[in-house]
Design a protein that fits this description.
Domain DNA replication/recombination mediator RecO N-terminal: 5-81
Low-confidence stretches: none
Number of strands: 8
Family: Belongs to the RecO family.
GO cellular component, one term: bacterial nucleoid
Distance between the termini: 53 Å
CATH topology of the largest domain: de novo design (two linked rop proteins)
CATH superfamily of the largest domain: Recombination protein O, C-terminal domain
Shape: elongated
InterPro entries: ARFGAP/RecO (IPR037278), DNA_rep/recomb_RecO_N (IPR022572), NA-bd_OB-fold (IPR012340), RecO (IPR003717), RecO_C (IPR042242)
Strand order of the largest sheet: 1-2-3-5-4
Function: Involved in DNA repair and RecF pathway recombination.
Length: 249
């Protein structure tokens, strides 16, 4: 029989209004995957922890298991990423796309991330931390996060060898449905011609090579962002609402 009370570290992905004073909080936890919980009375000015349950915030939360929705009983702020991210429009829209992606990738299987495999939680935490600390350009952080989150979900694109036949790269064509880079023999209709610098950047973003990513040219970044957006949309089977608001240089 499950224990009615449990505690975990979590990142707040989204909130929804419920009734006159409550909110539904969507959390990505370290050990329990995606959790949807009711925070009662948080919209009242007298709420003890309403401000702690804002998107992009990392919290230590205690929840009570419910039939359909859990209930937040205690919450403490660990890292308030929202304070610095919300002050910059570019960082805010990139963070919004990240949390929307995390919500989509973990909603079908709420136990996707467990105590043994919390990769999606750790990846999102690292990306929000990089945005909040301005470690890299927001667009680069976003594209790196999207590629790596998709890879964790089993949809890693090929950025060097041919995605169809495995012929050694680099190749200069990219086909979203085929899975990434394609050679001249396998190149299907609808493939996109890609600059060598763009393909190099895609590989760097996927592997986390920030020396290469930070030194990339604006043209390569723009083309890479377009490919990443198309690849994400294809696998999620819909375009994210927040992605349309992201500023691309």
């Amino acid at each position: 029989m499950p224990i009615p009370l449990y505690r975990d570290e979590a990142l707040v992905l989204r909130t929804y209004k419920l009734g006159e004073a409550d909110r539904i909080i969507v959390l990505l936890t370290r050990a329990h995957g995606q959790v949807r919980a009711v925070a009662k009375g948080v919209r009242r000015t007298t709420s003890r922890f309403g401000a702690r349950l804002e998107p992009f915030t990392m919290v230590d939360v205690q929840l009570h298991r419910g039939r359909s929705l859990d209930v937040v009983t205690q919450v403490e702020t660990i890292t308030p990423f929202a304070r610095t991210i919300a002050a910059d429009y570019s960082a805010f829209t990139c963070a919004s796309t990240m949390v929307e992606t995390a919500e989509r990738l973990t909603e079908d299987d709420p136990d996707l991330d467990t105590a043994d495999t919390p990769q999606q939680f750790l990846l999102l935490y690292g990306a929000l931390h990089a945005l909040a600390r301005r470690r890299h350009a927001p667009g680069l952080v976003l594209d790196s996060y999207l590629l790596r989150a998709l890879a964790l979900a089993g949809w890693a694109p090929s950025c060097f060898d041919c995605a169809r036949c495995g012929a050694p790269g680099p190749h200069l064509s990219f086909h979203v449905q085929a899975g990434g880079a394609v050679c001249g023999t396998c190149r299907p209709a609808g493939s996109v011609d890609v600059d060598p610098a763009t393909m190099l950047l895609l590989g760097a973003l996927l592997s986390g090579d920030w020396t290469v990513a930070d030194s990339s040219a604006p043209r390569a970044r723009a083309q890479a962002s377009s490919l990443v957006s198309a690849y994400l949309t294809w696998h999620l089977e819909r375009r994210l609402r927040s992605l349309a608001l992201v500023e691309r240089s």
